[in-house]
Structure formats: structure tokens, C-alpha cells
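It is worth pausing here to work through a concrete case rather than discussing structure prediction in the abstract. The textbook approach is simple: state the sequence, then state the predicted structure, then interpret. We follow exactly that order.
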Amino acid sequence: SGDVTSRLSKDIDTVANVTTSLLPQFVVTGVQLTGAFLLMYSMDARLAIVLLVLTPMVIAFGKLFAHKLRTMTLDIRQQESVIQMQVQEGMEHNAVLRSLGSEQWVTERLSTQQDQLVSRVLKRTRFTVITRLMLGFTFSLGYLTAFIWGGLQLRSGVITFGVMTSFLQLVGQIQHPILSLLNMMPQFFYA
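Step two, the predicted structure:
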């Protein structure tokens, strides 16, 4: 039926993308994150621990995001299946619909369902954009924390300017993989 056809065509593409591209990228990003954190820890354990404390908050936020996104994606897939079934049934029973004069009714019904689908997709898109903006703000806060931390350490003579620069680069090396992993999450949930 239309439901099976719709799900099968979308699911095959999604699973192929996850297994051949996304999963290897996920592993590489995880290794980069671990290496950057260990280097930061060897340079200043306190700053690394402060950044490590922020990470569970980001992960908790990510889990809430993932649950909501999974629900939205399931709704969208179900709506796509309903539309696919209606189109397929309309094609199969085209002669009957014409003889009964129901073409306008079927067209309006399909249009309504497509409008609902567009509304759901837009809602999911807005949710994703707002969530990513909030996540970016959180990462900026982590970068600001490292900058202030380094400035205070520099002022008291504990570190040099080069070490402070290294701190800031390592924060980026820690935050970038986390952000990459969180950006990959929607693709896993679309799967």
C-alpha cells in the first residue's frame, strides 16, 4: 500500500546515510572530543572539570531535544504515509471518483492533509532552529568562561599568554565535537 511504499523508500535512504556516513563521522568526532578534553585536563584540570560540568547540562538538554524531535518526526512520517495512501488510492479508483463527481472533494481533502504536513514540518524546523540558537549561546558561555578564567590566571602570573591562547583553542576543540555530535542527533532521529 501507499504507507509501505512511502516508509520503505524514505527508510532505505535514511538507513544507508546513517550507516555509511553518519556513524563513522560520529566515531571520529567522539575520538576528537576525548583527545581535546584529555589535553585540556593535562594543562589545567580545574578548567577542564568546569567544562566537563557544563557538558552534562548540554547532554540533558540534548536528550529533551531528541525526545521532542523524535515525536515530531514520527508525526511527520505518519502524515506522509496518509498522503501517500490517499494519492495511491485516488489513482487506483480514478474512474470511480470521476463517475461520482468526487474529484473536488478528494482534491480538497488531499490539500488539507498536505497543509497539515507543511505545518508540522515548519514546526519541527522552527523547533530545531531555536534549539540550535540556545545551544550556540550555551557554547558561547563556555568560551567566555575559559576566556575569563585564562585572563584571571594571566593577570596573576600563573600562565602565559600562549597558554591562555591554547586554552581558548582547546575549548573550541572540545565544543566543536560536542556541537557536531548534537547536530548529528537529528539525523539519527530522522532515521
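Step three, interpretation. The two ends are 21 Å apart (CA to CA). The mean pLDDT is 81.
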